[in-house]
Amino acid sequence: MKTVNVGGVPEHFNLAWYLALKSGTFKKAGINLRWKDYYGGTGDMCKSLRKGDIDLAVILTEGIIKDIVEGNPSSIVQTFVKSPLIWGIHVAKNSDYQEINDLKGTKAAISRYGSGSHLMAYINAKNNNWDLEEDLHFEVIKNLDGAVKGLSSGAADYFMWEKFTTKPIVDDGIFRRIGNCPTPWPCFVVAARNEFIEQHPEELQSILNIVNVVTEDFKEIPSIDNTIANRYNQKLEDVQEWLSLTEWSQELIDEKTIMNVQDQLKSLGIISNQLPYNKLVKKL
Q1: Residue 143: φ, ψ to 5°
Q2: pLDDT tens digits, 262-284
Q3: Can you point out the beta strands (E) in 48-205?
Q4: Burial (0-12, 13-18, 19+ Cβ within 10 Å), 66
Q5: Residues near 202 by Cβ (< 8 Å), separated by ≥ 6?
Q6: Among residues 179, 64, 182, 67, which one has the least CA distance to residue 120?
Q7: Is residue 33 pLDDT above 90, yes or no?
Q8: What 3-state class would DSSP assign to 17?
């Protein structure tokens, strides 16, 4: 039985992987799939892909594209969630900041450089016509717990993270959300190390087929809203809103989208060069 290590954030987007694991379908296909939660997000997963600690990652589109351009020997093999990710822009409850433009020139908490929270700070700055060199400053806080400490202590001024994941922290009166910033592209893809793609294409295809069966009918699973609410400490109405906004995909990301992401990352100064479509994506 082939052991395959997969990484992803411990969020409701990835529940389909847990359900597929729980059903035993991977084992029936001769695959010992081992899931690892990455609380540090995209930057942490990119590092693990480079080191070979994981074979696959369910990862933010912009983050993995940036890292492949910078030499990560991995490729995108499928879109996982085709709808945008809605990033909430958060401040500490007692902060003086009331609107997004109040944050101009202040310090953003980010999980690590190259992470989604880092890259989306640039997108938000561009959306608001800030000076990307003068108006962006960063404090590395590693994860969501670090963000709570960082904003509460004043070490950082604002924090961008998926708005439904942070909603319980807002409801508890620790954060205030003062705005949203959706990604201008599909939010999650599945990426795999090139070595793994070359050596185990059949196992990779089986893994994608199994999880795709779950995502195709994910919203029709009986009481899935209650399951998510209980598992991820969410209010039922928030889960129902999230489900209404979220669309999974079973297809490979298209060239136009890949080039759009690279164009935007380059215009923001996040990457210095671009790669052709076939250097970022592998069609199985």
Answers
A1: -155, -170
A2: 999 999 999 999 999 999 999 99
A3: 56-60, 74-81, 86-92, 107-110, 137-140, 158-162, 175-182, 188-193
A4: buried
A5: none
A6: 182
A7: yes
A8: helix
3-state secondary structure of 265: helix
Q: Which residue is listed with tokens 């899935």?
A: 224
CA dist list (Å): 14 to 139, 212, 268:
27, 12, 29
Return the ∠ at Cα 14 (arms to 77 and 193), rounded to 5°: 30
pLDDT at 115: 87
Domains of the chain are 2-84+185-280 (3.40.190.10), 86-182 (3.40.190.10)
- Say how far apart CA 14 and CA 20 lie, in whole Å: 10
Sign, CA dihedral 253-160-265-73, equals negative
| Amino acid 114: pLDDT | 84
pTM above 0.70, yes or no: yes
CB 248 within 8 A of CB 112: no
- For the four alpha carbons of 156, 160, 166 and 172, in that order, the dihedral sign comes to positive
Residue 59 backbone dihedrals phi, psi, to 5 degrees: -140, 155
Give tens-digit pLDDT for 212-261. Answer: 999 999 999 999 999 999 999 999 999 999 999 999 999 999 999 999 99
pLDDT digits (tens, 9 = 90+) for 98-135: 999 999 999 999 998 888 899 999 999 999 999 999 99
